[in-house]
């Protein structure tokens, strides 16, 4: 348990100090590998079987390599686990992207804020007003708090660096293939469903984390009443609890691929602004400290209980 805490602390510290690699990011290489697989397999097997095979071929070799390297030397697990957790985490990058939206929005530079929020969301941002930009940015921080932070931490606690790697790669495949379009409706089914399965427990722990850090009563009430209305079984709890914890109103209309979608409401309270984006980042950051502190207490309690048992 103590080694788990040390590895978690080291991985989080590396992400905070270094952020994501600016050159030769492994996820970029993985994205190219996944794109090559899709281009060659989907024409031959455009169904669910082909998508499942592509998912396994995309992730399996890297997962196997991580496990082999981890056992290559008695001390290798330290390097591999900490390194993979660092690569799986995106807390600093998420905070930087959020600030790149919040800063121009707070300064009244709506055009720049629209461009910057368009870098991290899939909706059309060209006609968004200030509240719409703040809404999109806040929602993205809350949802990616699970995808880029707490999900990786959860699977690291379950299965070490290999677990964090599997989660992040599966999440990347969902972002690439998990669309209900003619191209991916069958081929991308496995990527979307497996991401849902891997995300089920982390998403609810993320929602609980937001509730504990923020306005707890509102967060739990919004989670209970609003999350079931969302199509995604995992994004619903995360964003509903997060919006309630922040005391802002999210959800509503958004334009995706040229079509307006009416999404269920999220949260309660005021309309979001630049401060809401920054508050969502703090919610994520304080949540990481809560997880780290909880692991630290658990790590210390194990040897302490042993000492008490021999007293």
UniProtKB/TrEMBL annotation:
Transmembrane segments: 49-68, 148-170, 288-308
Membrane topology, from the record: Multi-pass membrane protein
Keywords: Cell membrane, Cobalamin biosynthesis, Membrane, Transmembrane, Transmembrane helix
Keyword Signal: no
Predominant subcellular localization, coarse grouping: membrane
HAMAP family from the UniProt entry: CobD_CbiB
Family designation: Belongs to the CobD/CbiB family.
NCBIfam families: cobal_cbiB
Task performed by this protein: Converts cobyric acid to cobinamide by the addition of aminopropanol on the F carboxylic group.
Name of the protein: Cobalamin biosynthesis protein CobD
């Amino acid at each position: 348990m103590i080694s788990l805490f040390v590895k978690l602390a080291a991985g989080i510290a590396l992400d905070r100090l270094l952020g994501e690699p600016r050159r030769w990011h492994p996820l970029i290489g993985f994205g190219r590998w996944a794109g090559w697989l899709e281009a060659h397999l989907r024409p031959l097997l455009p169904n669910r079987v082909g998508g499942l095979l592509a998912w396994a071929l995309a992730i399996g070799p890297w997962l196997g390599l991580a496990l082999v390297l981890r056992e290559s030397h008695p001390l290798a697990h330290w390097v591999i686990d900490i390194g993979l957790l660092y690569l799986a985490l995106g807390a600093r990058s998420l905070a930087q992207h959020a600030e790149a939206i919040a800063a121009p929005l707070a300064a009244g530079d709506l055009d720049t804020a629209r461009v910057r929020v368009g870098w991290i969301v899939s909706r059309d941002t060209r006609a968004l007003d200030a509240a719409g930009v703040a809404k999109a940015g806040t929602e993205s921080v809350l949802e990616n708090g699970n995808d880029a932070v707490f999900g990786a931490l959860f699977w690291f606690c379950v299965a070490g660096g290999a677990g964090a790697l599997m989660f992040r790669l599966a999440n990347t495949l969902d972002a690439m293939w998990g669309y209900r379009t003619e191209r991916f409706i069958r081929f991308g089914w496995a990527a979307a469903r497996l991401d849902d399965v891997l995300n089920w427990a982390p998403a609810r722990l993320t929602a609980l984390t937001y509730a504990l850090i923020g306005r707890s009563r509102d967060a739990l009430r919004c989670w209970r009443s609003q999350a079931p209305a969302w199509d995604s079984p995992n994004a619903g709890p995360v964003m509903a609890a997060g919006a309630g914890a922040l005391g802002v109103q999210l959800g509503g209309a958004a334009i995706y691929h040229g079509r307006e979608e009416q999404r269920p409401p999220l949260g309660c309270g005021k309309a979001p602004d630049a401060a809401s984006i920054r508050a969502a980042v703090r919610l994520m950051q304080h949540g990481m400290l809560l997880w780290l502190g909880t692991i630290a207490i658990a790590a210390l309690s194990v040897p302490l209980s042993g000492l008490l048992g021999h007293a």
